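Summary for the steering committee. The consortium agreed at its last meeting that each partner would contribute one worked example illustrating the joint modelling workflow. Our contribution is presented below. We chose a case with several input lines so that the handling of multiple components could be demonstrated. No manual editing was applied between input and output; the record is shown as generated.
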Amino acid sequence: NAGVTQTPKFRILKIGQSMTLQCTQDMNHNYMYWYRQDPGMGLKLIYYSVGAGITDKGEVPNGYNVSRSTTEDFPLRLELAAPSQTSVYFCASRPGQGFRDEQFFGPGTRLTVL
Amino acid sequence: AQSVTQLDSQVPVFEEAPVELRCNYSSSVSVYLFWYVQYPNQGLQLLLKYLSGSTLVKGINGFEAEFNKSQTSFHLRKPSVHISDTAEYFCAVSVSLGTGRRALTFGSGTRLQVQP
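What follows is the complete predicted structure of the assembly.
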């Protein structure tokens, strides 16, 4: 199993550009999450999904959109990039809704908006 | 809402010395706590978790943590650190998003710097 994979690893955007961060997991997990990690801060939840076709907002959803058409993929879309979106983005997944389940993280995407 | 506070942003320590990374959580009836480690340029990896039962939890790489309900703490310890333990450590609590859904809320992280 590859686990949780994210592409790209690094990206520089200009203000106003758009892009999609890709996330794929091959563990057949129902739950998937997107977090952002700002310097010196913990991870903050952007969006999450409990299964294909079901997504919901987390703590910091503004400026982002997601979709979940398949169990494996959970892309994160930035429509109009802003400097405040400069961050490291992590995708995570876990099997189900039980509190015992561990979250598995991807390696992250480092995004800089200039 | 449940939250965690990591009291130290950086902890320098010499190789083979013991270390404690501190984490306090907001009080709740039921609390599920986790420690994750992030090595440079990598994603987060689970070290250990407390769900219920024994208050002393053992994890990978020789780490352990003690759940202390009276002090609302979940400190991470290792009796003898190695250079390879240099990383960022995050304490996290499982929070309810409603209708049975859950996510993790993270502390701000503690950077452990092991020096030779």
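The radius of gyration of chain B is 14 Å. Chain B has a mean pLDDT of 91.
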